[in-house]
């Protein structure tokens, strides 16, 4: 059984940084794309960032481009989301997810491609 466990969330101030981690167990992630999504109160879950299995392809939502960086360490079976210059609009529960399409050429922004999801970690940015 695949499990994804996020960590690193918390309460920070505007302009601060946080690094989220997502450790996978039950499957080696090296041949799978990974993604981060977030859901703010009263809003739909939205795409944040994704990284292909080969690391060649990364995508970011317009709202985080230039501030967030997704990366992966296959040796640790872990994917990261470095978040800089946080603003209150980034407040949400952040979820990592594993793309069910092994060896996909490009990573996906479509949540329907993601087969497994973590339980989420809360990020709160105060103004």
Structural summary, described in words:
- The radius of gyration is 13 Å and the shape is globular.
- It is an all-beta fold and 127 residues long.
- It is built from no helices and eleven strands.
- A hairpin with a 4-residue loop joins strand 7 and strand 8.
- The strands form two sheets. Strands 2, 4, 5, 6, 9, 10 and 11 form a seven-stranded mixed β-sheet that branches. Strands 1-3-8-7 form a four-stranded antiparallel β-sheet, with no helix packed on it.
- Sheet-strand content, in percent, reads over 45%
State the low-pLDDT regions, or none. Answer: none
User: What integer is the average pLDDT?
Assistant: 95
Number of strands: 11
What kind of sheet is the major sheet? 7 strands, mixed
| SS content category | mainly beta
Question: What is the approximate shape?
Answer: globular
Succession of helices and strands: EEEEEEEEEEE
Helix content: under 10%
The count of helical stretches stands at 0
Spatial separation of the terminal alpha carbons: 40 Å
Radius of gyration from the alpha-carbon trace, in angstroms = 13 Å
